[in-house]
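Weekly modeling sync, notes
Attendees: S.R. (lead), two postdocs, one rotation student

Agenda item 3: backlog of single-chain predictions. S.R. asked that every request posted to the team notebook include the full sequence so nobody has to chase files. The rotation student volunteered to paste the first one in as an example of the format we agreed on. Action items at the bottom.

Example entry:
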Amino acid sequence: MSFEVFVMDLGKNEKTRETVRQGYTQIAQGKSGCCCGSSAPDKLAGAIGYTNEELEVLPDGANMGLSCGNPTAIANLRPGQVVLDLGSGGGFDVFIAAKKVGPKGKAIGVDMTPDMISKARAGVTAFTQKTGLSNVEFRLGEIEHIPAADSSVDVVISNCVINLSPDKQQVWNEIARVLKPGGRACISDLALKKPLPKEVLESAAALVSCVSGAVLVDETKRMVKQAGLIDIQINEKAYSLDVMADCNDPLYRQVKEFLPEGTKLSDYVISIDVTAFKNKK
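Predicted structure, as returned to the notebook:
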């Protein structure tokens, strides 16, 4: 790759990050409400596998309807583990994970949007009052450059976030770096059944809506393998993205405008659960 192309790629990637950052700042501030989730977040959470017991530990506002799966369910979290959530938003999965790993464990959230970090940190006191636990931490940072030491994390989780990254291979490389030997990645994300229309791919609204950044399932598997992770399993699930039809948010309305007549998002996009391990050696 020439220096000129490298610089152009850096510029494009940063523009993408800034688009996402601005979109999620608006969501954190309550100026936009749906993203890849729903205007009825508890209903969505139940539909994708969260239990009432899990939701009971959440501080007000932590569930923002931004999920496309339940990575804590596939992670089989155990007491004493260190778990790290990439793109932690308002802290939804971090708080749930913290309850599962208990007082001797730790749950860390990483997000690149300052308003999301502030929102998540604001919920810590309420979480501690509900559970008696003080084992959560939220760090500002990009998932392509995870603010965590090498081999320091037992489990990396993420929920509907890696599809937003302009450099997904780097994200998977970072996941492999921070995992302890034998550690596992448990990721819920969106993937494509077939390529999206060009107009959707070029839409900023579709990017912030967790759609245009998604890649084909085989591409995801290739990146996980290239990062050096092993025992890769990808479970494809139908995901009713059309739940967003109930949302009056302008992001979703803009995405719908770019779809061919007679089609819907779920014709193109599925939810996947990805599990993979770091070699014990």
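Discussion: group reviewed the output briefly. The radius of gyration is 18 Å.
Action items: rotation student to repeat for the remaining queue; S.R. to check formatting next week.
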